[in-house]
Design brief:
- It is a single chain.
- The chain has strands at 3-7, 10-13, 18-25, 34-39, 46-51, 58-60, 68-73, 78-83, 92-99, 113-116, 120-125.
- It is an all-beta fold and 126 residues long.
- Strands 2, 4, 5, 6, 9, 10 and 11 form a 7-stranded mixed sheet that branches.
- Strand 5 and strand 6 (58-60) form a beta hairpin.
- The relative contact order is 0.32.
């Protein structure tokens, strides 16, 4: 069992950058594939980016590829999301999630993740 807490959200203008952080406690952090999802008002929660247990494999949603970068530090039990060139359509609550199983399959599916943080709000004005 692992507890996840996100931080780093805020209100910024289009083109700005933010760095989100997810701190984990409990369990063995390095055992979990991790991901970020986001949910805008009135929309379903959607996949943003995935990172494998070792950090060697990453997969990005097309909407954020080349703008967002995920990383993890297993020694510090953290996963981060560097967001550059933010757009108004990036506005959402961002959630950190830990995958239920060690496999990387179906990494984009909401139902593959057992543990979730409380979310952090990112608002991008035009």
């Amino acid at each position: 069992q692992v507890q996840l807490v996100e931080s780093g959200g805020g209100l910024v203008q289009a083109g700005a950058s933010l760095r989100l952080s997810c701190a984990a406690s409990g369990g063995t952090f390095s055992s979990y594939p991790m991901a970020w999802f986001r949910q805008a008002p009135g929309k379903e929660r959607e996949f943003v980016v995935f990172i494998s247990r070792t950090g060697l494999s990453t997969y990005y949603a097309e909407s954020v590829k080349d703008r967002f970068t995920i990383s993890r530090d297993n020694a510090k039990n953290t996963v981060s999301l560097q967001m550059n060139s933010l757009k108004p359509e990036d506005t959402a609550v961002y959630y950190c999630a830990a995958k239920t199983y060690i496999t990387n399959s179906n990494y984009y599916k909401l139902t593959e993740y057992a543990y979730w943080g409380q979310g952090t709000q990112v608002t991008v004005s035009s």
